[in-house]
Each structure stands twice: as structure tokens, then as C-alpha cells.
Specification:
- This is S41 family peptidase.
- Pfam families: PDZ_6, Peptidase_S41.
- InterPro entries: ClpP/crotonase-like_dom_sf, PDZ, PDZ_6, PDZ_sf, Tail-specific_protease.
- A six-stranded mixed sheet has the order 12-13-14-17-18-21, sandwiched between helices. Strands 3, 15, 16, 19 and 20 form a five-stranded antiparallel sheet that branches. A four-stranded antiparallel sheet has the order 8-7-9-10, with helices on one face.
- It has three domains: 57 residues, no CATH class; 91 residues, PDZ domain (Pdz3 Domain); 205 residues, 2-enoyl-CoA Hydratase, Chain A, domain 1, CATH 3.90.226.
- A hairpin with a 5-residue loop joins β5 and β6.
- It is of the alpha+beta class.
- It has ten helices and 21 strands.
């Protein structure tokens, strides 16, 4: 879970009827023992493996940490985090109140005040402009996809958390921000932009590439994307192979949508989750009512039968589907490893004082029985380096080129 840093106000004052009043003091922190006990109980009650992976998650462990929590200078969240880390599961974690992540929106539509770019981490730990949104200040002001952001208002960005840099680029509508951008060859330019509200709603896009290869980009798997995928895939049924682009995709928890999209490519199940309550299957389900009256519901003919290459990267929300399709032999994967966690079900529970504990409640296994632990690693890794950016600036897509080469080597083209 990526944390978003909270904002601390050193001094807060309110003016009322000519008087200056101090803002209410924040509530005192909870007793450290309460935080430790709540975190221990959450893992005890909800962790998917009743054997806790061989870790000694017992009363003796709790008592040791409660004893340390009794110290005058004890930090309950630090102790709880240390205790939970002893489980050895990187996705079962404690989140301090100041680091609570922003809620994932239930709709893919996003509106922010900024310049209209999407960022990811690029070469040499510089922020990378992944996408320039149409109609925003960046699209009018000379910012290009593939640019490295080396400074924001004169402050260097290299090695800094991406969320921190993004927060500096955002701001109040009508204010200005100055970016220093770098090309793949090292040359730099400065642009000054005026922030404004930018709305963005990602949509499925398809086209036919040279060699009669279909290309389909799915930017999220919120409900409704299965209908868009069906409509676009129907344009590609006569192609010799399909490149399914799942890079830079978003979405959280819409597993029915994911299942319906997978059902357009295979009739085999993706796999199943192992939970404390038993096994929970994730089938590939083609048949579903269309959410769009202009797109007829799937029929028995609606399944793409030709070879498939899937593009993934560190922000692919479809990592679980890509893994399941690869392990079943239906697809090959190209790009960069996803973030860990694609194969985990998790419960997020409140802790005293406003923090959270995220507990793994299920682990995904492919239909062959392969566990998905950690990131999804592609069959062919394409480094995101300056050579990549140079090709990008020239209008090429190195991931697509490598996918076509892999399909050709495997006799699909």
C-alpha cells in the first residue's frame, strides 16, 4: 500500500469576532498497548493462513510487545509495525495515522487542479511524464510524454518520493508552476504553466498495427470496462495476434469485471484464492449483460482465439489477470514487473488513533497451482532507460516492438 504523507500544521489560528483563537489541539495519541493489542488481534482473526506461515503469532508474542509498550517513551505504532513485520508478509502492514493513503475512487473519472500529466518513476529515479492529458496546461505548454521532470520551481526531484513531487506540481487554480524537463539526450528545457482544473476519464482504445496485429489498451478495470473491451475487441477479430496493453492501469477490487474481460480471451479459469474460509475460484466469464445499450451482449462467437501478448508495468492493476493467462499458456508477458500485491486479497482495519492495519486475507494461485507471491514478472523485460525514452520520443513503443518480436519467435506471426 502506497502511503500519502499527511500535512502537519505547526501553528493554526482562527479569527472570530475580532478575537484570535487557537485551533483545537489534536486528540492525544492512544495508549501504545491499545495499538499493539488491536494490531495483533486483527492479524490473529483475519490472516489467510491459520498457521501464519510458520511464524509464532501467539499470546507470548503479544505479551512481549505489551511489555515493551509499557515503557514511558513507547511508540505504539512503531511497536505494532515491528510486530506485524515479524510475520514476513510484505503486504500485511501497519499504517500510521499520518500516512493513510487516499481512498481509491469508485469511478475512473478523475478531476484535479494541476497541469494535466500523469507521472511514474523513470530512469535514474527522476519522475517521468507517462501521459499528457488532452486539454490541460501541459498539452498546450510544450510538455511531452517521456519527459523527465528534473526540477519543480527550482527544487530538484531526483530520488524524491513521487507523491511529494506530484503534490508540488498540483496547486490552486490560477497559480503558476515552473518545470525543468529533460530529454533522453540530456538536453533540458523550462516551461512555466498556469494550473487549472483538469478532468480525465480513461477509455479503451484499439487499432490495427502493421502486420495485421491487433492492439487493445485497457486503462482500468472499474465496472463497465468489460463492455468497452468487448466493443473494441470486436474490431480486432480478423487480426493475426493481439497485443493487450495493461500498462499504467488502475482499479481496485472489481474482480467480476476482470473475470468478464478474461472470458473474452479464454474459457479456462484464471485460478483461485486460498482463504481461511476455503477456496474462492476466479473463473473466466464471457457471458454478461452489456452495460451499454449500443454494445450487444457477448455471444458464443465473442472470444478472441489468436495468440496474445500482454504488456505490463509497475502500475498494472490487471497483474492478476496477466499472471493467470500466462500460467495457463494463453498469453506471454512483456514489459516490467508489477508492484507486489496483485495476487493478494486484503482487509484494511482501523487501529486506535486513526491508523490502519492491512491484513492479507487470501492468496492467489493459478489454475496450475502456481502461487502469485510478489510482483508479476514478464517473460521479456524491457528496461525503462534512456534508450527506451529515445525510442519513445521518436514515436516508437519499445514494449510493443518486443511483444511483436516475441510473438514472431513463437511462430504466431
Amino acid at each position: 500500500m502506497r502511503a500519502v504523507a499527511g500535512v502537519a500544521l505547526a501553528v493554526a489560528m482562527l479569527a472570530l469576532n475580532g478575537r484570535v483563537l487557537a485551533a483545537p489541539a489534536p486528540p492525544p495519541p492512544p495508549p501504545p498497548a491499545d495499538v499493539v493489542r488491536a494490531a495483533w488481534q486483527a492479524v490473529r482473526d483475519h490472516y489467510f493462513d491459520p498457521g501464519f506461515g510458520g511464524a509464532a503469532w501467539d499470546e507470548a508474542l503479544l505479551e512481549r510487545y505489551l511489555a515493551r509498550a509499557a515503557a514511558p517513551d513507547a511508540d505504539g505504532y512503531r511497536l505494532a509495525a515491528e510486530m506485524v513485520a515479524s510475520l514476513g508478509d510484505p503486504l500485511t502492514v501497519v499504517v500510521e495515522p499520518s500516512a493513510r493513503a487516499t481512498q481509491v475512487p469508485s469511478s475512473p473519472r478523475v478531476q484535479v487542479v494541476g497541469i494535466g500529466v500523469r507521472l511514474s518513476t523513470g530512469p535514474e529515479e527522476y519522475p517521468l511524464v507517462r501521459q499528457v492529458l488532452p486539454g490541460g496546461p501541459a498539452s498546450r505548454g510544450g510538455v511531452w510524454a517521456g519527459a523527465l521532470v528534473v526540477a519543480v520551481d527550482g527544487r530538484p526531484t531526483q530520488g524524491r518520493p513521487l507523491d511529494e513531487v506530484a503534490a508540488e506540481i498540483r496547486g490552486a487554480a490560477g497559480t503558476r508552476v515552473r518545470l525543468q524537463l529533460e530529454r533522453a539526450d540530456g538536453s533540458r528545457v523550462s516551461v512555466e504553466l498556469t494550473r487549472q482544473a483538469v478532468a480525465w476519464e480513461p477509455r479503451a482504445v484499439s487499432r490495427v498495427l502493421d502486420g495485421n496485429v491487433g492492439y487493445l489498451h485497457l486503462p482500468h478495470f472499474h465496472p463497465g470496462m468489460e463492455t468497452a473491451a468487448l466493443a473494441e475487441l470486436r474490431k480486432l477479430y480478423r487480426t493475426r495476434a493481439l497485443i493487450l496493453d495493461l500498462r499504467d492501469s488502475s482499479g481496485a477490487g472489481a474482480y467480476a469485471t476482470l473475470s468478464h474481460i478474461a472470458g473474452l480471451l479464454t474459457d479456462q479459469p484464471l485460478g483461485l484464492w486460498v482463504t481461511r474460509q476455503g477456496l474462492v475460484g476466479l473463473p473466466s466469464q464471457r457471458a454478461t449483460a452489456s452495460a451499454n445499450p449500443l454494445v450487444p451482449a457477448p455471444t458464443s462467437a465473442d472470444r478472441y482465439e489468436q495468440p496474445v501478448a500482454i504488456l505490463i508495468d509497475e502500475v498494472s492493476a490487471f497483474g492478476l489477470m496477466a499472471f493467470g493467462l500466462r500460467q495457463s499458456g494463453r498469453a506471454v508477458l512483456v514489459g516490467r514487473p508489477t508492484r507486489p500485491g496483485a495476487g493478494e486479497l486484503a482487509a484494511t482495519l482501523e487501529l486506535p488513533g486513526g491508523g490502519l492495519v492491512q491484513v492479507t486475507t487470501g492468496r492467489f494461485y493459478s489454475a496450475r497451482g502456481d502461487p502469485l507471491v510478489g510482483p508479476v514478472v514478464p517473460d521479456v523485460t524491457v528496461p525503462l532507460d534512456r534508450h527506451y525514452l529515445r525510442a519513445w520520443e521518436a514515436g516508437q513503443d519499445p514494449d510493443v516492438a518486443q511483444a511483436i518480436a516475441l510473438l514472431r519467435r513463437r511462430g504466431a506471426l
